[in-house]
Design a protein that fits this description.
Elements (H helix, E strand, L loop, with lengths): L1 H45 L5 E2 L7 E2 L13 E2 L2 H5 L10 E2 L2 H7 L2 E4 L1 E17 L4 E4 L5 E6 L7 E2 L4 E6 L1 H19 L7 H13 L4 H8 L7 E5 L4 E6 L6 E2 L6 E4 L3 E9 L11 E5 L11 E9 L9 E9 L10 E17 L4 E2 L4 E8 L2 E13 L2 E6 L6 E5 L1 H32 L1
Antiparallel strand pairs: 1-2, 1-3, 4-22, 5-24, 6-15, 6-19, 7-14, 8-10, 8-13, 9-12, 10-11, 12-14, 15-18, 16-17, 16-19, 17-18, 19-23, 20-21, 21-22, 22-23
């Protein structure tokens, strides 16, 4: 009996040990199963998915390796993480462009150097009609054009030349009133009583632009003229013609426009950084490629007579006005050329003009910092000339800036900044969701 009891106790102990061992195995297994899962999740959350981009077409971006559907080139890894860690001015980040891509896009750099800048400022210019020498021909009574002498645009006109003849019932009535008043005064017993009526009728004819010779003829007993003659107010060219023979015109119609080109204006576009160097009275030389055949007047001496006080919001320029005599008519409106202003030379830190990306509100350059990394940097600029521009702040001597393909680098920087911002928002959203679960 004692041995049987001992046997049962041993079996019970072995059962307990077996259950303990089995529990330990299950616990270890569960721990083993859970640990890799946490590691995998942590790795998945810590890694950033690689994105691939076409070197020639930056708009082609995908999350797997392949070729560009436009040009067939192999896609390269987009360095989004690095951009996120290297922010620049608002909306821009530092970008990395390998040597192969630099060659493909034709990227070139140039160093900021101390150079003597000045001597001249070249500004694009345009010949225009002088505003005080523009004339509009209108009439003060309605009627019909019976004869037209100014019959085509561009026709030269002399001051006082007959332009057209207008048949106007109102004009004929005014002549008759004047003739009747004059003739009645001659036979009336009290001529002085008709003086006021005669003067009123005469003033009416003058207000209708009746020529003095016609009024004198009516006083001498001539019959009223059928048509009112309209004469040129100035010499010049007909630039606009809104009538033909037989046209009906009213008092609000602009019939003809005449431009006197004996003197013309030249408008030069000055950039903001050059305005301080050009004043009213500054000497200038006008160069016109249209007169490059050796004709006199290829280079004309002049001076600034006015500078526009308002900056054009689109071009960020001001108009400098020069006035030139044009007796031979060589200067024609809408001719294009350049105005050269002489300024004092001085040494400044400068870079090539095409390195500056001017958005109107800020001026950006991309600086080659190291190993193909290009950092966007906002700078302040001064005067320009000879294809270079003065740098007042933002660059140091010897720093290299992108000159050719700067717009492509700018596009790449903006694209990577947008992708980095998108990645940041996605990460924040995932973090918020993860925190809500816990």
């Amino acid at each position: 009996m004692f041995e049987l009891s001992r046997s049962k106790q041993n079996n019970r102990r072995r059962g307990i040990i077996t259950w303990i061992a089995l529990g330990a195995v299950i616990g270890v297994g569960a721990s083993w199963l859970m640990t890799p899962k946490r590691t995998i999740m942590a790795t998945a959350e810590g890694e950033t998915k690689k994105m691939y981009q076409c070197p020639m077409h930056p708009q082609i971006i995908q999350d797997y390796f392949g070729t560009c559907p436009i040009c067939g080139m192999d896609l390269v890894v987009l360095e989004g993480n690095q951009s996120l860690m290297s922010p620049g001015p608002d909306g821009l980040v530092t970008v990395q462009i390998d040597t192969q891509r630099q060659q493909l896009i034709g990227l070139r750099t140039a160093a900021a150097e101390e150079m003597v800048l000045g001597g001249e400022i070249r500004a694009p210019a345009r010949v225009v009609t002088a505003e005080p020498r523009q004339y509009q021909v209108t009439v003060k009574t309605s009627g019909y054009v019976e004869k037209l002498y100014a019959d085509f645009v561009g026709k030269p006109i002399e001051s006082g030349e007959l332009l057209f003849e207008l048949y106007s019932p109102e004009f004929i009535t005014a002549q008759r009133e004047y003739s009747v008043a004059v003739n009645t005064q001659k036979t009336a017993p009290d001529p002085s009583r008709w003086s006021d009526l005669i003067n009123a009728a005469k003033r009416r004819l003058e207000y209708l632009d009746a020529p003095p010779s016609l009024i004198q003829a009516l006083e001498n007993g001539a019959e009223p003229a059928r048509c009112l003659q309209i004469f040129a107010p100035s010499s010049g060219l007909i630039t606009t013609r809104n009538i033909v023979k037989g046209s009906y015109i009213g008092t609000t119609d602009i019939v003809l426009e005449i431009a006197d080109l004996s003197r013309v204006w030249v408008l030069a576009d000055l950039y903001e950084q050059d305005v301080a160097q050009v004043k009213v009275g500054s000497a200038a030389v006008l160069e016109l490629p249209a007169l490059s055949d050796g004709s006199a007047g290829k280079k004309l001496q002049g001076h600034v007579v006015f500078i526009d006080p308002i900056v054009d919001s689109k071009t960020r320029t001001l108009k400098a006005r020069l006035e030139f005599a044009n007796p031979s008519g060589l200067l024609r409106p809408e001719m294009l050329g350049a105005v050269v202003f002489a300024i004092k030379e001085r040494p400044v830190l400068s870079i090539p003009l095409d390195a500056v990306l001017d958005s109107g509100n800020r001026k950006i350059v991309f600086v080659d910092v190291t190993k193909g990394h290009f950092e966007p940097r906002e700078i302040e600029v001064g005067r320009s000339g000879g294809g270079r521009i003065e740098v007042l702040d933002g660059l140091e001597k010897g720093e290299a800036v992108v000159t050719r393909a700067a717009f492509l680098v700018d596009s790449e920087s903006r694209l990577q900044a947008a992708l980095a911002e998108l990645s940041r928002k996605i990460a924040e959203r995932q973090e918020d969701q993860h925190s809500h679960k816990h």
